[in-house]
Amino acid sequence: MNLTRKQFDILEALALSGEKLSQRYLEELTGHSLGTINKASQELAEQGLINGGEITEKGFLALEPYRAKRAVFIAAGFGSRLVPITLNTPKPLVRVNGTRIIDTLLDACLKAGIDDIYIVRGYLAEQFDQLLYKYPMLKFIENPAYNEANNISSAVMARELLQNAYVFESDLLIANPDIIKKYHYTSDVLGIWKERTDDWCLDVDKDGFVKEEKVGGYNTYQMVGIYYWNAEDGAALKEHLLEAYRQPGGKERYWETVPNVVFKGRYKVAVRPCLDKDIVEIDTFRELKAIDKTYDV
């Protein structure tokens, strides 16, 4: 059953609340007008997806195709800009104020009900085994090409797992776990609105979908390395990643340029806004010292 965006937003709000919600409160949660909420709710009730302001079992089944079912972590790289810490520790395992960076991502996944989790590892791979004490559900994928190719090689190794799946860069420190959602209407990527940035950024069209990926820009979204791929796009990426990897110079690509640049126009990826305070990417040792004073010695 295909849901309209308005129907999806109402069902998602009801599913996540676990209780009866008034139309006035649904208006506040979804951003849709009260008239729109009333009309879409009537449609959902007629289909048996809601009853008396609550989601039904049939409603949960209608949301199932939109549920995030797994997470893939790209974690094979060296993390050269965080030297000297990464000489002995993979960047995702570096502790910030006592907590490993990757733990904030893993905990957010589990909070969203995602426990089918894969970590693509390469540099100091055996150190990731320590995660199994806290996260016994983890599964590892080895990337033997991590030292001779860019992160596209890790995505290629996990290409069979991208349907209804998150793909994470593993060096992001999450302060707000709620940015990892259980349900998604479309493929999406997190972005932080910037009036100006020198970082990788995404320009969007009038409907909020990515139209260009570039380095630096004005009035644009700074790209956060957290993507979600629906079933259709995940299946397409399985083939496109391998095709791009095998092209001349393909091993030097960043994996997300495959949908955004190499096969531009084939994918509709929505930018899902978040805030600077929600998530932090620690790129350099100087930034690490600024956040955790125990390294400033």
Can you put this structure into words, describing what you see?
This protein is of the alpha/beta class and 297 residues long. The protein folds into two domains: 5-65; 67-295, Alpha-Beta Complex (Spore Coat Polysaccharide Biosynthesis Protein SpsA, Chain A), CATH 3.90.550. The chain contains nine helices and 13 strands. α1 (5-17) crosses α3 and α2 packs across α3. The longest helix is centred in the C-terminal third of the chain and has 16 residues, at 231-246. The radius of gyration is 20 Å and the shape is globular.
Strand and helix map with partners:
Layout: H1 5-17, H2 23-30, H3 34-46, E1 50-51, E2 54-55, H4 57-63, E3 70-75, E4 95-96, E5 99-100, H5 101-111, E6 117-121, E7 139-142, H6 152-157, E8 165-169, E9 172-174, E10 188-204, E11 210-229, H7 231-246, H8 257-262, E12 270-274, E13 279-281, H9 285-291
Parallel strand pairs: 3-6, 3-8, 6-7, 10-12
Antiparallel strand pairs: 1-2, 4-5, 8-11, 9-13, 10-11
Helix pairs in contact: 1-3, 2-3
Beta strand count: 13
Please bin the fraction of helical residues: 25-40%
What name is given to the CATH topology of the largest domain? Spore Coat Polysaccharide Biosynthesis Protein SpsA, Chain A
Uncertain ranges? none
Order of helices and strands: HHHEEHEEEHEEHEEEEHHEEH
Oligomer: single chain
* Strand fraction: 25-35%
C-alpha-based Rg, rounded: 20 Å
Query: Which strand order spans the largest sheet, edge to edge or round the barrel?
Result: 7-6-3-8-11-10-12
Compute the separation of the termini in Å: 58 Å
What is the overall pLDDT average? 94
- CATH class category label of the largest domain: Alpha Beta
Instruction: Give the helix tally.
Output: 9
